[in-house]
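Extended Data, panel c. Modelled sequence:
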Amino acid sequence: MDKDYIELATNLSFGEDRQMIVLIFGKLKVIESKDLLISMLDDPTIYGHALESLSKIDDGSLLPLFLKFSKCETTWIRNVANKYIQNKDYRLE
């Protein structure tokens, strides 16, 4: 993973502009970015974008993270989580 992208994505001074960089990790299916993206789930500025990128990495071990966001108040983030869960054929109880 390119160090410049990591630096841009983690530099808080770029604020919301980091969202597009975070989406690149998912578009390129950069598996190495998994831990970085998970750490970004605590950042209110980019957590939805990090979740979307994680959904593209497609690792079944991420189910607990997606279950947590399946009840998110923000509709588009809730939809990303539920789509991941549905595509993995998991059943919510």
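The helical segments are 3-10, 18-27, 34-39, 47-57, 63-69, 75-87. This feature is highlighted in the accompanying rendering.
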